[in-house]
Automatic annotation (TrEMBL):
InterPro entries: Methyltranfer_dom (IPR025714), METTL25 (IPR052220), SAM-dependent_MTases_sf (IPR029063). PANTHER family: CGI-41 METHYLTRANSFERASE, METHYLTRANSFERASE DOMAIN-CONTAINING PROTEIN. The gene is LOC123119418. Residues 129-304 form the Methyltransferase domain. This is Methyltransferase domain-containing protein. Pfam families: Methyltransf_32.
Length: 578
């Protein structure tokens, strides 16, 4: 029977105070320290470094026999009664240290908030995920702006302006949209004018609709963000500020209040990497900024181990702990337990296969291209998407060629016959594809070069041959992206046979490592919360699960405000408790 880690092992955690947050972070750091090798393991080296051997042998023996469905629930803290007690302890302890991610209604956090449903005009161009995020976030931002008496919102990392336009037209707030892309600014302006006409047409009384004002700037520091924000607010009468590249201007003296600048709220929906952290620093240092609502993402892009203003860590306590994550571990923080458990069995197996292909591909690089392997090459997300698409087509092709009563696998000659039964005289496969001209040799078309790759005989069974063919296709595509040239006698079959027996450990290993991902994200989020709590009693801050984590995995909103007027009254029972 599966047992979810509802409360986990040990006492319940809270981050209502700075001391509680520090204790929580210390517990996480201690747990991560005990499992550092698993954290630092990179799946591309799975076969090369025999990574499954770093995990308790009883764990791996148990998990390799488990159905895929049980593995997919592991990162969510679900264990089976028959699992080794040490494995159950690992999973349940990890889960007990994670921030609760189940979505809560904005009203449970701020009773005076309202969530307006976005109509078809405002929602044009949004997918269901984006619409879900914009509706929830804009309601929270509006409630906090009204509570703080702020009339202007600065949307940091505004993209195509979806949040800015919802705040402008649904909540009648003045909005300044800052983004690094001039194209995004142009799209925002054009789209906003179209929406403005729609709202004006359906408005009975004469009403002035102000579209968001756009600022184009590549924000590299909190000083830059503060300067651009305050400069954009100096003149509150303009409709647009477009193509404003003012990042190199002198930084205003933000320590001195400028009463011509309105009270501001900083908002950011998935502001990337250090941008979310720079928002926190501007909130603390700039008197005009009264509140902050930030949903971060892209932890792998955070700066770390820099002398000045790193993206991680930022709290004094985290800096003194000396816990170093590194890019690979921060990338793990982007894993979503909710999405893992919602994968179908087929999707999960495909993901495990692709991890196996990438690890086996590394063995090809080690043996035949050692100078490339030493550079730790990245094949890239575009290449991954291309390979996923091509591998799916290859599999569909193999299944289509099989008959219900005959599951024999077609040989290379049959796969590449012309419709008249003859073999092609010229390579006809697209760039990067495989063109077989005999049973022993394939011609891999990589750019303008042609490589002869030894694929061995095709006398294996259907499943083994399908997997090997997919691996071969993956490898040739990867070599093409890395610009590897002509190579004689690359024996892919030999490499695949060497690793094939160990592919069954890929799924269990990856799921165990993925179980640590939410823990790493929790530590990063608590570091940001603690940074605000360290400012003293003048700042109130909370973490709140604003979105459905299955739809939007980065769903934790960091909400903060300055206690300069009437205190904002959030409801009890928010995400400060675990």
């Amino acid at each position: 029977m599966a047992a979810p880690a509802s409360g986990g092992r040990g006492r319940a955690r809270s981050c209502e105070t700075a001391e509680q947050t520090r204790e929580w972070m210390e517990a996480i750091a201690s747990f991560l320290g005990r499992h550092r090798p698993l954290l630092e393991a990179h799946v591309v080296n799975f076969f090369k470094d025999r990574l499954w051997e770093m995990v308790d042998a009883d764990w791996m023996e148990c998990l390799r026999r488990e159905p895929v469905e049980s593995l997919l629930m592991l990162p969510s803290g679900c264990v089976q009664d028959h699992w080794p007690s040490s494995l159950q302890e690992f999973i349940l302890t990890a889960r007990s240290l994670v921030l609760p991610r189940e979505q809560k209604s904005p009203q449970s956090f701020l009773p005076n908030s309202r969530v307006a449903s976005i109509g078809t005009v405002l929602a044009q161009g949004m997918n269901s995920k984006k619409k879900h995020e914009i509706e929830a976030l804009s309601g929270i931002v509006d409630a906090i702006a009204r509570s703080r008496g702020a009339k202007t919102v600065v949307d940091v990392g505004s993209g195509q302006g979806y949040l800015a336009q919802a705040l402008s037209f649904e909540y009648q707030l003045a909005v300044i949209a800052i983004d690094a892309s001039s194209h995004h600014a142009s799209v925002t302006n054009t789209r906003a004018e179209r929406i403005k006409k729609h709202y004006a047409a359906k408005c009975v009384e004469k009403q002035q609709f102000k579209v968001p004002r756009t600022v184009t700037c590549h924000v590299l520091s909190s000083d830059t963000l503060a300067a651009v924000t305050l400069d954009a607010c100096q003149d509150d009468h303009g409709e647009h500020i477009t193509e404003t590249n003012n990042c190199n201007q002198s930084i205003p003296q933000i320590e001195q209040p400028n009463h011509s600048i309105p009270q501001l709220v900083l908002a950011g929906l998935h502001a990337c990497g250090d941008l979310s952290v720079n928002m926190l620093r501007v909130f603390v240092s700039c008197e005009q900024v009264q509140a902050l609502v930030s949903v971060g993402c892209c932890y792998n892009l955070l700066s770390e181990d820099t002398d000045t203003c790193p993206g991680f860590p930022i709290s004094k306590a985290a800096k003194s702990s000396k816990l170093v994550l590194g890019k690979s571990i921060r990338d793990l923080a982007c894993q979503s337990a909710e999405r893992w458990r919602n994968l179908t069995k087929e999707m999960a197996l495909q993901n495990f296969d692709i991890h196996a292909f990438r690890a086996a591909f590394q063995m090809v690089l080690e043996k035949y291209f050692p100078e490339v392997s030493r550079l730790s090459p990245s094949i890239g997300r575009q290449g991954k998407a291309l390979r996923r698409q091509r591998l799916r087509k290859v599999m569909e092709s193999h299944l289509a060629m099989g008959k219900a009563d005959d599951l024999s696998y077609p040989n290379c000659k049959e796969q590449h016959m012309n419709t008249d039964g003859s073999l092609p005289t010229e390579p006809t496969a697209p760039k990067g594809a495989v063109e077989c001209c005999s049973n022993e040799l394939c011609t891999a078309v990589v750019g303008s070069s042609i490589s002869r790759v030894n694929v061995g005989p095709s006398d294996t069974n259907l499943d083994e041959c399908c997997k090997f063919t997919l691996f071969k296709d993956f490898t040739i595509s990867g070599l093409g992206r890395l610009g590897c040239g002509f190579v004689e006698d690359v024996n892919l079959l030999e490499i695949w046979k060497d690793v094939q027996h160990f592919t069954e450990f890929i799924g269990p290993f990856w799921c165990l490592r993925a179980a640590l991902g939410p823990l790493v994200e929790t530590y990063i989020l608590l570091d940001r919360l603690l940074f605000l709590q360290e400012q003293g009693s003048a700042v109130e801050a909370s973490l709140f699960p604003l979105f459905d984590p299955a739809m939007s995995p980065r769903n934790m909103a960091l909400v903060a405000w300055k206690l300069t007027g009437d205190p904002l009254e959030p409801s009890h029972g928010n995400a400060s408790h675990a």
